[in-house]
UniProtKB/TrEMBL annotation:
Domain RecF/RecN/SMC N-terminal residues, every copy: 1-513
Keyword match Cell inner membrane: no
Lineage: superkingdom: Bacteria
InterPro entries xref list: DNA_recomb/repair_RecN (IPR004604), P-loop_NTPase (IPR027417), RecF/RecN/SMC_N (IPR003395)
Organism, as annotated: Idiomarina baltica OS145
Protein name: DNA repair protein RecN
Function statement: May be involved in recombinational repair of damaged DNA.
Coiled coil, from the record: 322-356
Gene3D superfamilies documented for this protein: P-loop containing nucleotide triphosphate hydrolases
């Protein structure tokens, strides 16, 4: 709960240090005194929009801090631990605004972003403004109130997750559908090209081999003649072939070696040369055996080369790259076929996710209808207490499983009311007057607050348009709520203020040059005087003080 609020140089406040207690605290004061100043300052601490106009004239900056006590099992404590701001069971928010409009924020002494501060804020305080009833006629706000009362956050999360999954798959499916004709045409072309290349079926490195074979086959006569000449020169010639000359040289040098041993290494080299010549001759004979003028083989080779060149030209690639091009086209065709399979899977997945979403939306709708019946009855009873004895309030929840999907399901929620006998239920905006709408809004806020887990709730003049016995009922409702959580209520009604466990008075003082607002904790006698002022205006008599004593709860 909120325990302390420290305000420096904020609007007409020079310095305020306010302590808050458990239960219901009523804040009263004259019109224009600045009764809502504490709520405005706290709003800034909770991440509200900064404005340089909030800085007190003549000062460099506004400085506001709020201290809260929290429990171990509270959402606020979990947030602090998760974000490494834990400081045992205390949470201190601080906000400064300089006169040039720059703003800074801290949580437990550590600097934070406004986004972080705004995320933490709802776990600490729930503020209901004096214009809350104006939001009541908006469909989105009606849904939020019903969901808050129903306390089915897990169902909303389930709907939102299933919606996002379905929406993402739906988007991908539509993208595939848009490209379907384009992909089909592309697949038809590539299928034809792949079929053509499959029929030709060129192998890896085949064109290089064809070029080599063609060159050999077209020059086989020259190759035969050259190899025969070489074989005769090296070994087969009748006169002066290399092998015979080496043999003759070897014989002469062998005789010389008997006379000079230095010739032995030369003999060894000649013997090696002789062996190499013999091996060369053998290889040449084998080569000649393979050389054969085969016109049919040459024709087949030339035909395949021509086909390869023609296909390469058709596909705008070099003949040497035809094999690689074939593999790339086959890969593209495989990917297109997989895309078709993916599209079929997407269609199935899309339908499955649609079913998951519709089921989640139906579960949420069922929970809403159950909560709507309960909340409708409670608000109707509260209307009776608030001087609308014939009032009937009904929350209509219409589910349409064919409606456009949203993050919040497919329900149409409408708050309907009748305040007079014989009148049919109609939408809240069409039936209720301003005063009635204000009272209905208050009843809804109080009923929904019973389901709230936030430790501190603030009401800023939500009793506008209420008076007399009805005001006393409003005060009793707020006091009853104060038994469950901390209630801070800004009011101008003595019947409401008297129901508070505690009361503060806001005073505006001026010395003619400057104006300053102060807030005072009132004791019992001071409360009687303040209630008497609220009852009788500036003239406080013993009679008004007696009336104040009767109002005050002991």
């Amino acid at each position: 709960m909120l325990t302390e609020l420290h305000i420096r140089n904020f609007a007409i406040v020079k310095q305020l240090d306010i302590e808050f207690k458990n239960g219901m605290t009523a804040i009263t004061g004259e019109t224009g005194a600045g009764k809502s100043i504490a709520l405005d300052a706290l709003g800034l601490c909770l991440g509200g929009r900064a404005d340089a106009n909030w800085v007190r004239p003549g000062c460099d900056k506004t400085d506001i801090s709020a201290r809260f006590t929290i429990t171990h099992d509270s959402p606020a404590h979990r947030w602090l631990v998760d974000n490494e701001f834990d400081d045992d069971l205390e949470c201190v928010l601080r906000r400064t605004i300089s006169k040039d409009g720059r703003s800074r924020a801290w949580v437990n002494g550590a600097p934070v972003t406004l986004t972080q501060q705004r995320t933490l804020a709802p776990t600490l305080v729930n503020i209901h403004g004096q214009h809350e009833h104006q939001l009541l006629v908006k469909e989105e706000h009606q849904r939020e109130l019903l969901d808050q009362f129903a306390q089915h956050a897990e169902l909303i999360t389930e709907v939102q997750e299933s919606y996002r999954n379905w929406a993402a798959t739906e988007k991908r499916f539509r993208q595939h559908q848009q490209r379907k004709e384009e992909l089909a045409a592309q697949k038809q072309l590539i299928s034809y090209q792949v079929k053509e290349l499959n029929e030709f079926n060129i192998g890896e490195g085949e064109f290089e081999q064809l070029e080599s074979d063609h060159k050999r086959l077209t020059h086989v006569r020259a190759l035969t003649e050259n190899s025969a000449f070489a074989l005769n020169a090296l070994y087969d010639g009748e006169h002066n072939n290399v092998s015979g000359l080496i043999q003759a040289a070897h014989g002469r040098l062998e005789e010389s070696a008997e006379l000079d041993e230095q010739i032995q290494p030369i003999l060894a080299l000649l013997e090696q040369a002789k062996v190499h010549i013999e091996e060369t001759a053998l290889e040449l004979r084998n080569y000649q055996d393979q050389l054969d003028i085969d016109p049919e083989q040459l024709e087949v080779t030339e035909q395949r080369m021509s086909q390869a060149i023609a296909l390469a030209k058709k596909h705008h690639v070099a003949p040497l790259d035809l094999y690689q091009h074939h593999q790339q086209l086959q890969q593209q065709l495989d990917e297109l076929e997989r895309a078709e399979e993916d599209n079929e899977q997407l269609a199935e997945q899309r339908q499955a996710l649609r079913t998951v979403y519709r089921q989640a939306a139906l579960k949420l709708s069922t929970s809403r209808k159950k909560a709507a019946d309960k909340l409708s009855a409670e608000i109707s009873r509260a209307m009776h207490k608030l001087n609308m004895p014939h009032g009937e309030f009904v929350i209509q929840v219409d589910h349409d499983d064919k409606a456009t999907a949203t993050l919040w399901g497919t329900d149409e929620i409408c708050f309907t009311v009748t305040t007079n006998p014989g009148q049919p239920l109609q939408a809240l905006s069409k039936v209720a007057s301003g005063g009635e709408l204000s009272r209905i809004s208050l009843a809804i806020q109080v009923m929904c607050a019973n389901q709230n887990t936030v430790p501190t709730m603030m009401f800023d003049e939500v009793d506008v348009g209420v008076s007399g016995p009805t005001a006393a009922v409003v005060g009793s409702m707020l006091r009853s709520l104060g038994e469950q959580c901390q209630i801070i209520c800004v009011t101008h009604l003595p019947q409401v203020a008297a129901k508070g466990h505690h009361q503060m008075q806001v005073l505006k003082q001026t010395d003619g040059a400057q104006t300053e607002t102060q807030v005072w904790q009132l004791n019992e006698e001071q409360r009687i005087d303040e209630l008497a002022r609220l009852l009788g205006g500036d003239s406080i008599t013993e009679k008004t003080k007696d009336n104040a004593r009767e109002l005050l709860i002991h």
